[in-house]
């Protein structure tokens, strides 16, 4: 994957710098909640590196998520209840 591009690749370096800044901001904003980047963080860099057209990034992401979405539908049909996130939004109201 990305290791083959080498640590001096400008896109890899930029992604690493963005990741470091984002993680620092998250640690500052939520010091009691450990947050980390997931595998999708570097997906765009990898897809770009292997020559995938950028217009296909979102469809490829959706294809990878489709089995999970289908599983949620089956769970909802089986239980008869809509699965809702357990979190509650506490941010600002949309304008």
Structural notes for this entry:
There is one protein chain. 53% of the residues lie in helices and 0% in strands. The longest helix is centred in the C-terminal third of the chain and has 23 residues, at 57-79. The protein folds into 2 domains: 1-51, no CATH class; 54-82, no CATH class. It is an all-alpha fold. It has 3 helices and no strands.
Primary descriptors:
95 residues; mainly alpha; 2 domains
Q: What does the average pLDDT come to?
A: 87
Instruction: Provide the domain count.
Output: 2
Q: First CA to last CA: what distance?
A: 42 Å
Helical residues, percent: 40-55%
Radius of gyration in whole Å, from Cα? Answer: 18 Å
Shape: flat
Fraction of residues in β-strands: under 5%
Task: Write the topology of this structure.
Elements: H1 10-29, H2 43-49, H3 57-79
């Amino acid at each position: 994957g990305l290791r083959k591009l080498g640590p001096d690749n400008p896109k890899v370096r930029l992604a690493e710098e963005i990741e470091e800044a984002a993680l620092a901001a998250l640690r500052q904003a939520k010091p009691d909640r450990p947050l980390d980047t997931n595998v999708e963080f570097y997906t765009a860099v990898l897809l770009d590196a292997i020559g995938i057209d950028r217009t296909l990034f979102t469809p490829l992401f959706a294809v990878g998520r489709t089995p999970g979405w289908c599983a949620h539908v089956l769970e909802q049909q089986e239980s008869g209840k809509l699965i809702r996130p357990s979190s509650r939004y506490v941010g600002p109201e949309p304008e």
